[in-house]
Each structure stands twice: as C-alpha cells, then as structure tokens.
Design goal:
Distance between the termini: 20 Å
CATH superfamily: 2,3-Dihydroxybiphenyl 1,2-Dioxygenase, domain 1
Radius of gyration: 19 Å
Helix content: 10-25%
Strand order of the largest sheet: 2-3-4-1-13-16-15-14
CATH architecture: Roll
CATH class: Alpha Beta
Oligomer: single chain
CATH topology: 2,3-Dihydroxybiphenyl 1,2-Dioxygenase, domain 1
Structural class: alpha+beta
Strand content: 25-35%
Number of domains: 1
Shape: globular
Order of helices and strands: EHEEEEHEEEEHEEEEHEEE
C-alpha cells in the first residue's frame, strides 16, 4: 500500500509546431480533452488524460525517447476515431499499429503512445497515464533503481522481460516510470520533460543539490534536474528533465475536465458529457 514519496506523475511535456494538427490527433483521434481553463491560447496547449496531462508548447517538435502508456475506455472507439483522422494526418508521421494487448498510435511528429483498455494491471484507471517508458543504455537499470530509491525514497525494482531488463519506479498511485535497457543508440536529447509531485520536497532538493544536479529553482514550490546519475560512480546514466513540485503547489490535485468522446450532438445522451477517469469499485 506504500507508494513512496513520489505521489503523482502529472504531465509529459513535448513541444509541437501546430496546434491544429495536435488537436486533430490528441482530441479528435485519441478522444482526450483540452483543458478549458489554463493555457487556452496559441502558445501552449494542455490536454487532460484523467488526472494527468500532456503539455505542448508551440515550437520545434520534441520526441520522447520511448513511449507513453495510456489507458482509454474503449479500443473499438479509439480505432474508429483514429480512422476518421487518418486522411487529415496523411502527410505527417501519424500511424496506427494494432497489437494483441494495445494499439500503438504515433503522433504527427513521431511520439509513440501505447493505448490500452482498462485492465487489472492498471488498477482502477479508466482514463490516464499509468506509465512513461524510456529507452536507456545497457547495464544501467540497477543504478537507476538505486538513484530513485535513495534520492526520492520511492519503491523501485529491476524486472527481466522479453523486451529487456527494466527499471520500474513508482511515481504515484498506479503510475510508474520505466527504463528499458536497449542496445540501440539513443537519439539526441531535445529537452522534453516530465513533471512529478513529491512529498519530501526539501529532502530531495538537498540530496540533488549536494550532487550538483539541480538545474533550476523555479519558485518556492518547484525545482528541476536533468541527470539520472550512478550514485556509486558519479556518472550520468540518462538525461531527462524532471520538473519537481511540492504538494503545497496550488496546482496539486487540481480537478481536470474529461469529456466523453462518444457523446455527439447527433446521438446525444443527457448527463453523459463527462467521463469518469476511474472505475467504480463494482467494475
């Protein structure tokens, strides 16, 4: 029952060059919801996924070195929506690949999203981001696990699987960061980032600061670091900017609007506009 001191993975941030194309993919295709209250202009867009978000500032596109796992209510509904936007996105990197357990949807700029239906392995999540998986160099999983255990006091373990050794780090209720070892050379890091909330804000800051890893103190509720480090050898294992926030941040647990993408004006059901992001206990 202990999730550790990282209590929530809130958002994944990648830049996008065109909000219109992003809306077609993330809102019309995936069925997600643009935040109606914050970042509603043309310089940034926030897209809600249950209790989490994608943040997409306008600029040169960024591509995560791995993939994001999504839980969506219906595989059939997802495939129907993606089929409808295929023609509009034909001149982009958009792609859809069906697998037994998930559907891989590739964004117009190459970000990979593995879309699953609700399942016991995701807990009660009906709509959300249960994990983000990064591709890391061989023989780095053990040191990554030690880094998160000692710096953030969060459960982490190494798993062996058919896709390679995996460092799995708890970053919230039914949420994980996954680091999968691979022999493939990583593409250059383009400054995409993730954001987490931590219960031990001052302690994690002090530990990182002593190692010279804090790159920015944004305000009293937020700092950033980028280097996931081998604590024994003091060498960088993987670079991924973490935006770290205190649970005293006013944005913590802000209610997010999630629409029901199956609701239409032609087949309208009163009371069915909103979508619950968590399954009821009976489900």
């Amino acid at each position: 029952m202990d999730i550790g001191k990282i209590v929530h993975l809130e958002h994944v941030n990648v830049r996008i060059p065109d909000q219109r194309i992003a809306t077609i993919f993330y809102v019309s295709g995936l069925g997600l919801t643009r935040d109606p209250y914050l970042m509603t202009g043309i310089d940034n867009m926030w897209v809600n996924v249950g209790r989490s978000q994608f943040h997409m500032p306008t600029g040169q596109p960024q591509v995560l070195r791995g993939h994001v796992g999504l839980v969506l209510p219906s595989r059939e509904g997802l495939l129907q929506r993606l089929a409808k936007v295929r023609g509009t996105l034909a001149d982009t990197r958009f792609a859809v690949r069906e697998h037994e357990d998930y559907v891989e949807a590739v964004s117009p700029w190459g970000n990979r999203l593995r879309c699953y239906e609700p399942a016991p392995e995701f807990g009660p999540i009906r709509l959300g981001i249960p994990y983000v998986e990064l591709e890391v160099p061989p023989d780095s999983a053990d040191a990554i696990v030690r880094f998160y255990r000692e710096i953030f006091e969060t459960p982490a373990e190494v798993r062996d699987g058919k896709g390679g050794r995996l460092a799995r780090v708890v970053v919230g209720k039914d949420q994980y960061l996954q680091f999968r070892e691979t022999d493939a050379p990583p593409p250059p890091y383009d400054n995409h980032h993730i954001q987490i909330y931590v219960a031990n804000y001052a302690a994690t800051h002090d530990r990182l600061d002593k190692l010279g890893l804090v790159t920015e103190i944004s305000n009293e509720h937020q700092y950033r670091f980028t280097d996931i480090t081998d604590l024994a050898q003091r060498r960088t294992l993987f670079v991924l900017e973490h935006e770290v926030r205190s649970v005293r941040n006013p944005l913590y647990r802000r209610p997010l609007v999630n629409r029901n993408p199956d609701q239409t004006n032609m087949s309208y059901t009163p009371g069915a506009d909103a979508l619950s992001w968590e399954l009821a206990p009976a489900e």
